[in-house]
Amino acid sequence: MNAGIKVFAPATIANLAVGYDILGLALESPGDEIIAKISNDFTGVRISNIRNDGGKLPKAAQKNTASVAGQAVLDHLNITDIGIELEIIKKMPIGSGLGSSAASAVGGAFAVNEILKSPLTKAELLPFCVQGEYIADGSYHADNVAPSLLGGIILVKNGENLIHQRLPTPEGLFITIIHPDIEILTKNARSIIKSSISLNSHIDQSFNLAGFVSSLYQSNFDLMRQCLNDIIIEPQRAHLIPKFEEVKAAALKNNAIGCSISGAGPSIFALSENSFDAENIAYAMKEVFKNVKIESTVIVSRVNPEGAYRF
Ligand code: HSE
User: Fold this and answer.
1) Ligand 1 centroid to 109 CA: how many Å?
2) Which numbered atom of ligand 1 lies nearest the CA of 143?
3) What is the structure's pLDDT at 165?
4) Does the predicted model carry a pTM greater than 0.90?
5) N or C: which end of the chain has fewer CB within 10 A?
6) What atom of ligand 1 comes closest to residue 190's alpha carbon?
7) Of 87, 133, 234, 273, which one is the catalytic site residue?
8) For the residues of 199-262, what is the DSSP string, one character each?
9) Whose CA is nearest to atom 1 of ligand 1?
10) Average pLDDT, integer, range 278-303
11) Which residues form the pocket of ligand 1, taking CB atoms under 6 Å from any ligand atom?
């Protein structure tokens, strides 16, 4: 048995209003910490312990996103004679819309690769992280795992090739997140999305996505303000989050560039041009939930450029 290694995989905001299932960014914190150790008692990847999950997460190796992703790395490398145990230290809320299962999947794959002395690059780990994430909600989407692994703002196409592209982060960009103390299962929030949209919606949302991506390249916050708008998914999910419209209105009133649902919710995010606006938005959002006696947690963060790391 060796002393082991420890890694961090950050929380993420998926969709970013304009890129359902194809766009996400990494936060500086919170995230998951994972400790990996070699074990001589078994082969394969197992979960030895999970801290701070309130008993909610499965420890069975085939059901936990961290061990499934880690095992997928071992399988890919054809390693059958090594045992690796993972301890997950949850430092972020579960079912929050902040990519909790993705952070565990990334942490698991990254920790296994690190303890094996990094035979794979980070980008090569991406498919195994997606496999881990699949266990959590039964669908393949890489918009949380890609930024958690690679950092930054990432455009990623689901499917066999997982084509991904890092987009620039404008100087000054801040993110405010509010997490009301309710839980939404991603599986449920996905099941209510209609499978077709009108041509007009497609045209408008295509403009929003293209304009947002363009605004990142130009650091053009005015263009971003015009484009950071979800006319397809947000209207279908907003009713799942109490006081969503009021929280969004409070953010926009306090100079948010835009505001929408983080991933499948219930967390809500707002982008802003500086930390001053970001803090004001945090306060205003929290007041809305406080007035209706819903506990909430706010986070103010920049984009994390690095993604998962060993420490
Ligand atoms: N793109 C996914 C969704 C992210 O919105 O369902 C889930 O975390």
Assistant:
1) 20
2) 1
3) 97
4) yes
5) C
6) 6
7) 133
8) HHHHHHHHHHHHHHHHHHHHT-HHHHHHH---SSSHHHHGGGSTTHHHHHHHHHHTT-SEEEE-
9) 21
10) 97
11) 14-15, 20-21, 99, 141, 143-144, 186, 189-190, 263-264
Report the percent of the chain where pLDDT is more than 90.
92
Q: Indicate the top mutation candidate among 21, 155, 260 to test ligand 1's pocket, ranked by most ligand atoms within 8 A of CB.
A: 21
Exposure string for 175-208, b = 16+ CB within 10 A, e = fewer: bbbbbbebebebeebbeeeeeeeeeeeeeebeeb
Euclidean distance between the first and final Cα of the chain, in Å? 20
Active-site annotation holds for 186: yes
Residue ranges of domains in the chain = 5-168, 174-301
Structure token digits, residue 136: 């959590």
Q: Is 133 a catalytic residue?
A: yes
Ligand 1 closest atom vs CA 189: 6
Q: Which residues lie below 8 Å from residue 64, measured CB to CB, with a gap of 6+?
A: 47, 50, 57, 58, 88, 104, 108, 135
CATH number of the domain at 5-168, out of 3.30.70.270, 3.40.50.300, 3.20.20.60, 3.30.230.10?
A: 3.30.230.10
CA 35 – ligand 1 centroid, Å: 27
Report how far ligand 1's centroid is from the alpha carbon of 141 (Å): 7
pLDDT(223) > 60: yes
